[in-house]
Give the backbone structure.
Amino acid sequence: MKKFISAILLAAGKSKRFGKHKLLEKINNKTIIEYSIENFIASSINELIIVVGFNAKAINRAIISCISKKHLTHSSSAINLKKTPVLSFLIQKEHNSSSKKIKIAYNTNYNYGKGSSISCGMKFVSKKSDAVIIGLADEPLTSTRFINNVIEKFNKKKQIIVPYFHNKKGR
């Protein structure tokens, strides 16, 4: 039986070391966050929760632009993230009958780091979810293939999966 997999994409940070908001930086005419979103949407996850915080308005615009460019249908259930904690979209691919839910959650406590963003995202994970993948929006090279491999390993072992690279545990 196929498991229901949720993903939380962390996009709330300040990019202090980078000097400017790196998620909005472009590589080949696409923002870094667009690459990350596209890779997760193309994977076999069932829902994506994107947690925003710092510079939320600009990040929301980039997210909505990405969704609008790549997916036909989307419907919003809320507009002001500071008043309503989550914005929901349902996307459907052109030649595919399956749809995915995308939620944008606003972390008011983003100054407290990744843990606060994970906690914020977990509040919006579907009750149907069997597992949650945590991704970082500033890692655009996390490929769809990699995400699907993690899901495949989970489906076989049904336990916590931690990726390794050159015998070194992921962070």
The radius of gyration is 15 Å. The CA atoms of residues 1 and 94 lie 26 Å apart. The first strand starts at residue 5 and ends at 11.
